[in-house]
Design a protein that fits this description.
The chain folds into 2 domains: 96 residues, Rossmann fold (3-Layer(aba) Sandwich), CATH 3.40.50.10860; 124 residues, NAD(P)-binding Rossmann-like Domain (Rossmann fold, 3-Layer(aba) Sandwich). Helix 1 packs parallel to helix 10 and helix 6 crosses helix 7. Helices cover 41% and strands 16% of the residues. 42% of the residues are buried. It is α/β, with parallel strands linked by helices and 281 residues long. The strands form 3 sheets. Strands 1-11-8-7-5-6 form a 6-stranded parallel beta sheet. The structure holds guanine. The site of guanine (GUN) has 7 residues, from strand 4.
Length: 281
């Protein structure tokens, strides 16, 4: 039986640690506030945004909500971001993605001041990660590192295979594993014989967005398997990119879906917010 990597528990531990840190900062007169922007009313985005605001409340950071109509112009959004960039009371700015099609997502991300970019999406923060300098790190991959470390899984020297090369997960994930001294292979939709490459992994991290794509044939006996995917199945249940029932018996450790990587994203967002307050990032 594989060790179950409990993201719900680990994310709670992290949020509780941050809550204490925020209380200590408050005692020194340092208070934090995060601006959360949502453009339009996409129901999934509304759920994420609400959870982010609730997490702020839990750890003791004030959140300011900006709910803009779908018809908002790109310039209006850029003006709001500029105002928040210049507001000394605001430490962190988050614009929930996706933005409506009439906006240039990259332009919006670049408009956020890098020192307030708690999502870690700005090219300056991504560049800092590449060269190993201080900066905000994308929350989901940062959460995976915490899951591994807090579950006692050694990374240095291990062969890590990352499946997926997105800007938000795959690329920063690979750089973070490299920083932890893993030997890293990045796979994607054009990788030849993906199955054979995955089967070499000591640590297999999957972020492809395809339900149950990774079956037992992709996994080496005793591997650690991290599943970043989340999908609603026809029967209403959630599943990941990994076929859990097949893979769990051969893995040494595995993240469940739900309750694995998912809860870590918000915990690490809160970590970035606290770093924004202290100027650590
Ligand atoms: N949309 C999906 N995931 C994210 C995220 O981590 N941050 C933001 N801002 N938008 C998202």
């Amino acid at each position: 039986m594989a060790q179950l990597i409990d993201g719900k528990q680990i994310s709670k531990e992290i949020k509780d640690e941050l809550k204490e840190k925020v209380a200590a900062l408050k005692a020194q007169g340092i208070e934090g506030a995060m601006a959360v922007i949502q453009v339009g009313e996409d129901p999934a985005s509304s759920v994420y945004v609400n959870n982010k605001k609730k997490a702020c409340e839990y750890i003791g950071i004030r959140s300011e909500s900006y709910e803009l109509a779908e018809s908002t112009s790109e310039q209006e959004l850029l003006d709001l971001i500029e105002r928040l960039n210049n507001d000394p009371k605001i430490n962190g700015i988050l614009c929930q993605l996706p933005v409506p099609a009439h906006m240039d997502e990259n332009k919006i991300i670049r408009a956020i001041a890098p020192e307030k970019d708690v999502d870690g999406f700005h090219t300056q923060n991504v560049g800092a990660l590449v060269v190993g300098q201080k900066g905000f790190v994308s929350c989901t991959p940062a959460g995976v590192i915490q899951l591994l470390k807090r579950s006692g899984i050694e990374i240095a020297g291990k062969h890590c295979v990352v499946v997926g090369r997105s800007n938000i997960v795959g690329k920063p994930m690979s750089l973070l594993m490299l920083k932890e001294h893993a030997t890293v292979t990045i796979c994607h939709s054009r990788t030849s014989d993906l199955q054979a490459v995955c089967k070499q992994a000591d640590i297999l991290i999957v972020a492809v967005g395809k339900p149950k794509m990774i079956t037992a044939d992709y996994v080496k006996e005793g591997a650690v398997v991290i599943d970043v995917g989340i999908h609603r199945q026809e029967n209403g249940k959630l599943c990941g990119d990994v076929d859990f029932e097949q893979v769990e018996p051969i893995a040494r450790a595995i993240t469940p879906v739900p309750g694995g990587v998912g809860p870590m994203t918000i915990a690490m967002l809160m970590n970035n917010c606290v770093q924004a307050m202290t100027g650590e990032a």
